């Protein structure tokens, strides 16, 4: 889907946002962040290349006139238009694909990943990559590669079904390469992973500088997700090898990396990013838009806001609440936020857990709320139970509203909270319950923490600081001469062994 929205203006700086599963087709923290940047910079012309599910997702945000084009690239809808390559072109693409797969599976051959990727990117632009990957030749190349003597994946006995599955997953993951690559301005990927692919193609073909902002660590989240994915080890080895090498290529090639917290920086440096190319830029909120929430609810209440998703680990929160309620029988847990399409089973699992623990009457899923401030005002304490986060908006918004918080120690949470809230280990219901009980039992401490939290937001995490920083980057980046990857003296190190996610 390609939406022409506003006309480009002569002389205006141009930025192409590269998104996946977020702006402008869905709500959530990263989408809020994108909207803040766009709305806050009417002097910049924006385009959006949005990786989506089916391509039929409606635009969920009101786009200002300076958003010129929105192009949706569906991963799971109808395959891209095109025809299979023929003759020498087919042979060249098959050779590149073999080099690509060898890099994914053989640590000694990882240097071949980037050249093969850019050859495949040109084939995608010509409309031949997807038809090739849906053909028999691609299957034959993979079965040949992973059955080579000496490769560890061979010991797992890959089957034809594994080959079909892995090839299909790669074909879908590479579909963003079919989007027209930006030819000027700045390509700003707002996550790692497949959203970056059009940016890498633009850099390779047109020299367009690539800016990468990671809110969470995309690769880490893929590792977490594939632990329980319904694939055999040979499939996981191929797909996770792709995500790892794509992350390393992105870190090496980006002109500037702006993680939302210092935790992400560790992964980026481990992946081969030059330290001088990394600059932490925190998310910000407008304190006037999130004023003090006012009186607490009369009944002791824990509130949570976000999307209902396994990465938010609501099961740990519900288990912690059961322990809280054993001490405070009148306590409630109110959960605010939408359930993404396809996530209904997870919500049902969480509801079933609350019922199993005997607290279905006190745990309420209230869906999206018209004004998110109401979600924070609904609790005496605001909870965050995620197993992975960047620099979460819900946390700094709750802090701006003057509410005390209990959060899991993931991503940039500790950087956000400082000493104005309690931070507990992830996946630890007992520690979470203990922290919640501390604050529920001490109204003076809650009030003091909430006041300190709002002051911390005003001093360090305002929206104006974020927008001004990115405007400067957008204007300066096209003029900077970036250092070529070959000049980086420290060789990239693997981010994590693919074997760590077997099972």
Automatic annotation (TrEMBL):
Q: What is this protein called?
A: D-inositol 3-phosphate glycosyltransferase
The protein's matches in NCBIfam families, at most eight in alphabetical order, are given as: PelF
Q: Which PANTHER family match?
A: BLL3647 PROTEIN (PTHR12526:SF636), GLYCOSYLTRANSFERASE (PTHR12526)
Work out whether the entry's keyword set contains Transferase.
yes
Q: Which InterPro entries match?
A: DUF3492, PelF-like
Q: Which GO terms describe its molecular function?
A: glycosyltransferase activity
Q: Which domain of life is it from?
A: Bacteria
- Which parts of the sequence belong to the DUF3492 domain? 13-276
Keyword vocabulary terms for this entry: Transferase
Short name of one Pfam family: DUF3492
